[in-house]
Amino acid sequence: xxxxxSEWQWTRKPKAYTITDDKIEITTNPxxxxxxxxxxxxxxxxxxxxxxxxxxxxxxxxxxTEFDSKVRFD
Length: 74
Description:
Oligomer: single chain
Largest sheet: 2 strands, antiparallel
Shape: globular
Order of helices and strands: EEEEEE
Distance between the termini: 32 Å
Strand order of the largest sheet: 1-6
Number of strands: 6
Number of helices: 0
Structural class: mainly beta
């Protein structure tokens, strides 16, 4: 799938990101997350989100992540 940036919309656009024909790379800021309603009632909804609508019945993508955890659940 070729990424057509005109069809995508940011929620909380990050300061650092790159979009090419076959890749989206997002660098998030420290202390950003998308946790919701955990056992301990932890809620944090402040990470960047890139969204697109599709009419495809089945839509999938591959995600590769890199992170430098310092503590559990970091």
